[in-house]
Amino acid sequence: MITMKSPEYLSKDILDEDFVRVFRFPFLVQMALGSCRVHLKARFITIPTLGQKLYTVMSIIICSLLYFNITKLYLPLYYQHSIVYYLFLAVTGLDQLSFFANLIHVRFLNGETNTAFCIMMQRIDRNMKIDHNNILNKTVIRANIFTITFIILIYVVLVISTIMLNEYSLVTLFGLLYGQLIFMVEMAHCSNLILFFFTRVRFVNAIIKNHVHPENQNQPPKLVRYFVTNRITRYLAAQTHDFIVNDTDVYLKQIFEGFSMFTDIYRFQVCLFCIKIVVLSLLTFELCFVAVQRNLLETKNLTNYYIMTYSVIGFFTALYVSGRCELFFREIRETKRLAVAVLLQYQEGPLREKATRMLKIIEESTPQFSVYDMWNMDGYIFIKICSLVTNLIVTLLQFAYL
């Protein structure tokens, strides 16, 4: 006898339309690039299909041939100068290896974990009733559209410049552009997922603030188009939530669990990105430095400019990701401060117990974006990267002139 599965089990992999709308744009872009982590059809989420994986394999093969064509076309220009020759080979080789590693990781690994992460994010929104506050979701939607569109436009400009300067280089350098675009879109999506968790923690804080400091919570604030301010969040929370009846400790625990899943999934991309930006910046500087010394930096050699442009974009992306991480961790510190304020206000009772549970959750499972226990992603990581690159560049200059 066949038994029907429970409705809860049947619906757990089906995403709400409002939630799908939040991540639809990055999903479509990554589907076109062959780097989407999940397959979404009719709001049902699964691991990538066989056809999508074959599409990715075909992309890897084609890009491998294009990378080989780059080395075949441009390396002979530097063959008489061994230092520049090997530097150029190292730069293109590093870019190719990072492209392969990133694409294989997002498409062929952690398939079940990726689907579980999407379901976890929706469960957070359902429990917190975020669907009643579409402004929070619209903030993430705008961030997705703006960041990814901006990155695409940069590479469109590079393509147009290629067509204007040298038509043959467009096909030759397509593999380089394609690999870099996939990586940058992935990092932009990573930073916007941090924004997703940031807005949820800020919403929890708004619920507590409305209880601890109830003044002006029901006064409609002036809406800011591209960012949810504290006043807006407090106003939204006051319409649907109350610290007395809502389980803010459960909300916080689920947010921390979701962020832990996020760091487990994305720490490989962040590690690869940070290592690549440091090594590529040093190789690019040394390549340009030696090429200028020997008068080899030709104006029509677009590969050199692509590499330099990618290094600049990489530093801005690092600043963007580290800034988002710092905002998230500061909001958690604010949660801790508000929980202590509740403890000071109540000497006993259920609200004091709830605040105690929240403090315990923060103390025992404080979120950290640890990259394989080597470093933590926060607001200072960008400064550390710049400091490291600057020190190494000064060292290279000392070897060159002293």
UniProtKB/TrEMBL annotation:
- Show the stretches that span the lipid bilayer: 52-71, 83-104, 145-165, 177-199, 270-292, 304-323, 381-401
What are the UniProt keywords, alphabetically? Membrane, Transmembrane, Transmembrane helix
Is Cell membrane found in the keyword set? no
Please state what the protein is called.
Answer: Gustatory receptor
**Native species:** Bombyx mori (Silk moth)
